[in-house]
Write a structure and sequence with these properties.
Oligomer: single chain
Shape: elongated
Structural class: alpha+beta
Distance between the termini: 61 Å
Number of strands: 21
Radius of gyration: 44 Å
Strand order of the largest sheet: 3-2-1-9-8-5-4
Helix content: 40-55%
Length: 562
């Protein structure tokens, strides 16, 4: 807090006040002329001085309104002016962090006093002169002229008050906006309170600020303050103690001060202050916490603007607090879902690995049975059925493992030749292609090197090429295109097979769907190959699409940035 020096918003008005004082001094022909403005209910402050007052420099010093009342009580009234002789007046200097010191005006030969009131009767300031004043026979027209100058001074002070009020409201509006922006950016309620406390103290030009809020409705409150020792002295239980007053602030849409609520005065004293202003944090539907602003006894008292600003800030902070808490709850839900999803992936991987062991044993024992010549002589080959079932289970396990890995982040980025990778996929499907009379047609460059996750992309190539062969009509063609353009690799796989019904194209990549066509029932497989491809491509930052006509074939297109 400063000494209360005036910082007017309009320099022109201040200059006008100085010129008025100079004109009055010349008209009255006195030692000095001064214009003071009202600071609060107790103090006036010398705004401008011309001439040489008997006390020396008094510009910017304060004097009590009780002194003005005493002057007017003992003075003789000359119209709207008041005159007195040999009256002692004390000025008080109130600099920051320095004890008050008094300067006394002595040897007055007379004072001329003109109180300056607003249209509503409120005292704005006072025009005074120091020096000889002929009370009995003033020069003709002197009093009338001084009254005119006093009216001009009144208008100037009225303008300054309006400018000061507007400037202060704008300052607090910008400050409140900063408080709300900082609060909205907070990650949780404790950090919100920390961001609010210091900014609130600055906004209110206060010595201290304390704020508390519930972490959740009905959950214990957290508190923060500026400076930190305020919260240490009050403790978090104070929020519970203040609940009745916070409720009253919400229901009455008002604020409370130490004058209207003595308990606030006692709390202020605990923190080393005297003045306290309380507002609720809430939007009227319920309280979420409180704002408490603290000042010293020598600081300016709370104004209507102060109370309105803190009240409005408390209402907005109630909404912001709800938003921060909602965002935090959403984040916790997301984190919990991610943990559950990770658990699901780990569970699938664990189960599929466990399935691998008995499947391996089945496969080995099948080979032993196949080597038994007695089964061949008897013409009975149940071993072949066992082998097919084991292979199908093994493929299903592989698909489940691939599904789990497809949802993990890309890893093992390696520069590989995608043309060779595609040829390997064709080699893998060559046996079934030969059985069905399906031929491959490759449209690729000689080589195409790219930084990719080779295991993941090889799975995509193998699945798409394998499906194209599996669902092709006998003696059909599978056409494979591989190119690079615009910073991405594009792979197209086209077949001349049974195609996909139009009403199923939108769900073809869903894990829970497989084309319900009678012609597909004869083809073994888990039915999740395309879902695996879609997840892998998405993880790699790419996109997979399909274009199909039932009975004519399908074309799958994969585009991956690299």
């Amino acid at each position: 807090m400063g000494s209360g020096a005036v910082h007017p918003a309009d320099k022109q008005l201040v200059d006008d006040v100085a010129r008025i004082a100079e004109s009055v001094r010349e008209v009255v022909d006195t030692r000095a002329a001064m214009i003071s403005r009202v600071i609060d209910d107790e103090w006036l402050e010398v705004m401008t001085v011309v001439g040489e007052p008997s006390s020396g420099l008094v510009d910017g010093l304060r004097w009590r309104r009780s002194d003005l009342a005493n002057l007017l009580a003992d003075a003789e009234q000359l119209g709207r002016l008041h005159a007195t002789e040999r009256r002692t007046l004390s000025y008080v200097e109130v600099p920051t962090n320095v004890p008050e010191t008094s300067l006394y005006v002595a040897d007055h030969l007379g004072l001329l006093v003109a109180p300056l009131h607003a249209a509503d009767g409120e005292l704005l300031g006072v025009l005074t002169t120091e020096g000889p004043v002929d009370i009995a026979h003033p020069p003709a027209g002197t009093c009338e002229l001084v009254e005119l100058y006093a009216e001009q001074a009144r208008l100037a002070l009225t303008g300054l008050r309006r400018q000061d009020v507007l400037t202060e409201r704008l300052r607090m509006s910008y400050a409140a906006q900063g408080v709300l922006q900082a609060a909205a950016a907070a990650e949780d309620v404790p950090s919100l309170l920390e961001s609010v406390a210091g900014r609130l103290g600055e906004m209110m030009r206060a010595r201290g600020a304390w704020t508390c809020a519930e972490l959740e409705p009905g959950v214990h409150a957290e508190a923060a303050s500026y400076p930190p020792e305020v919260a240490e002295r009050l403790g978090t239980d104070v929020c519970t103690l203040l609940q009745p007053m916070i409720g009253a602030c919400l229901s009455d849409e008002t604020t409370l001060t130490d004058e209207s609520a003595p308990l606030l005065g006692r709390l202020a004293a605990v923190t080393g202050h005297e003045q306290a202003l309380l507002a609720a944090i809430g939007d009227g539907t319920g309280s979420r916490g409180a704002l408490l602003v603290l000042r010293r006894a020598e600081d300016e008292p709370w104004t209507d603007s102060d109370r309105e600003a803190v009240f409005a800030l408390g209402r907005r902070l109630g909404t912001v607090t709800d938003q921060v808490q909602g965002r935090r709850r959403d984040q916790e839900i997301v984190e919990e879902l991610m943990r559950l999803d990770q658990y699901r992936r780990d569970l699938v991987a664990s189960i599929t690995h466990d399935l691998k062991t008995p499947l391996t044993a089945i496969a080995l024992n099948t080979e032993l049975l196949e080597s038994d010549g007695r089964l061949a002589e008897a013409g009975s080959h149940p071993v072949e059925a066992i082998r097919r079932s084991a292979d199908r289970l093994s493929n299903l396990v592989d698909d489940l493992l691939a599904m789990a890995r497809a949802e993990e982040g890309a890893d093992n980025l390696t520069e590989v030749d995608l043309v060779q990778m595609l040829r390997d996929a064709c080699d893998h499907a060559e046996t079934e292609a030969r059985l069905r009379g399906v031929g491959f047609e490759l449209d690729t460059p000689k080589d195409l090197w790219a930084m990719v996750d080779p295991n993941a992309l090889a799975r995509v190539f193998a699945n798409l090429v394998g499906n194209a062969v599996k669902f092709s009509l006998p003696r059909g063609r599978v056409v494979l295109h591989l190119t690079r353009s615009d910073g991405a690799v594009e792979f197209r796989c086209s077949d001349e097979g049974i195609g996909i019904p139009a009403d199923l194209l939108e769900t073809i990549f869903d894990i829970s769907r497989r084309t319900p066509d009678a012609r597909t029932e004869e083809f073994p497989g888990s039915g999740i190959g395309l879902a695996i491809c879609a997840r892998i491509v998405t993880r790699l930052g790419g996109r997979i699409t399909v274009d199909s006509t039932q009975g004519q074939g399908s074309t799958f297109t994969v585009r991956i940035p690299c």
